[in-house]
Amino acid sequence: MITGAFLLLAIVLGYLVTVGLSMAATFAMTTASPDLVARDFRITSRYKFLQDGVWLVCTTVGGYMTALVLGREHSPWIGGIALMAVLIGVLWLNAWEMRQRGVGHQILMSVATVVGVSAGFFLRLRWSAP
User: Fold this and answer.
1) Strand partners, 38
2) Beta carbons within 10 angstroms of residue 33's beta carbon
3) 8 A C-beta contact, residue 126 and residue 104
4) Per the UniProt record, which residue ranges are transmembrane (predicted)?
């Protein structure tokens, strides 16, 4: 029961941190350089690749936060896999953004999710006390 509660809390926290940081970065980039984001009412390729990199960083922080809540005692890798599944599921279910990004960037962001969450977990679990 306690492990399930920690798992749910960790996934919700990881999701909120990942999406919150991504939104903040997106708003900041859009405000700072609107020409970087869109030209002739189309999202630019440079912005899409920049967004992929930002997503990688955000998923790393989200994975780290999830691992921080779970620690070594509460099935940390199950939490990481669950966070990846939630983030990728939401990414692919958002049809409007998927049309804006294109399938190639959706796949790239899915890979970035797996790499980022894994990196966040590795960073947290590697340097935590045994």
Assistant:
1) 43
2) 12
3) no
4) 6-32, 53-71, 77-95, 107-127
Report residue 66 as tokens.
Answer: 């999830």
d(CA 37, CA 107): 20
pLDDT tens string 35-50: 888 888 888 889 999 9
CA–CA distance from 71 to each of 17, 42, 95 (Å)?
Answer: 17, 43, 35
> Which of 92, 94, 83, 90 lies closest to 59 in space, CA to CA?
83
* Sequence-separated (6 or more) residues with CB below 8 Å from residue 70: 6, 7, 10, 76, 79
Which structure tokens are listed for 82?
């669950």
Q: What is the pLDDT of residues 85-109, one digit of tens each?
A: 999 999 999 888 888 888 899 999 9
CB 10 within 8 A of CB 72: no
Phi–psi pair at 39, nearest 5 degrees:
-135, 135
- Parse the chain into domains and list their residue ranges: 2-127
